[in-house]
Amino acid sequence: MDNQQNYIHHPDEFPIKLTPRECENLLSKSHPALKLVCHSNTQFICGDVIGIEVPGVGPDLEVTGVIDWCSTSDKGYELGITFANQDALMRIRMLEQLCYIQRYRKHVLSIEGRDLSEQDAALEWIDKYANLFPKAK
Predict the structure, then answer these.
(1) In this structure, are residues 76 and 33 in contact, taking their beta carbons and an 8 Å threshold?
(2) CA atoms within 13 A on the CB side of 125
(3) Rounded (5°) CA angle 94-97-101
(4) Alpha carbons 62 and 91: distance in angstroms, whole number
(5) Of the candidates 79, 124, 133, 136, which lies 20 to 30 Å from 4 by C-alpha distance?
(6) Are the beta carbons of 65 and 80 closer than 8 angstroms?
(7) Tell me: the pLDDT tens digits for 25-72?
(8) Mind giving me the DSSP string for the chain?
């Protein structure tokens, strides 16, 4: 695997929906700058094109990616997913940030007892953690 700073690890508490897609020549010739790592109950093959959704977080947002690697894990399979272009990279980064903001919101409620609105949670998370989030270069 590449340097871990080039990966976004999808939080397991947010179910991810991976749907096989029929596409060819999706990847660009350049090396993808950012990859998504997630768990799946389904085994995929390197090169499989998939649609990625997180229904509980971004119900209207789907991003298309390509399976870069698939290995067995204690949670089924661990997948590395690449993206063909800057638009897809930005969309997956945005979707994953929404997951991390929701995780932060739940954490603040359980630890501090503060029930933040989605907007307030986003503002706090961005202020505290956005600079640490992997970037699409």
Answers:
(1) no
(2) 21
(3) 140
(4) 8
(5) 124
(6) no
(7) 555 545 567 899 999 999 999 999 999 999 988 878 899 999 999 999
(8) ---GGGEEEPPTTS--EEEEE--SS-S-SSPPS-EEEEEESS---TT-EEEEE-TTT-TT--EEEEEEEEEEETTEEEEEEE-SSHHHHHHHHHHHHHHHHHHHHHHHHHHH-----HHHHHHHHHHHHGGGS----
| Residue 58, beta-bridge partner list | none
What CA–CA distance (Å, rounded) separates 78 from 71? 5
Residue 27 · residue 66 · CB < 8 Å: yes
Say which residue the tokens 């109950």 belong to. Answer: 41
Residue pointed to by tokens 């977080």: 57
How distant, in Å, are the alpha carbons of 29, 36, 98, 123 from that of 39?
26, 10, 18, 28
Residue with tokens 């700058």: 33
Q: What is the pTM of this model?
A: 0.86
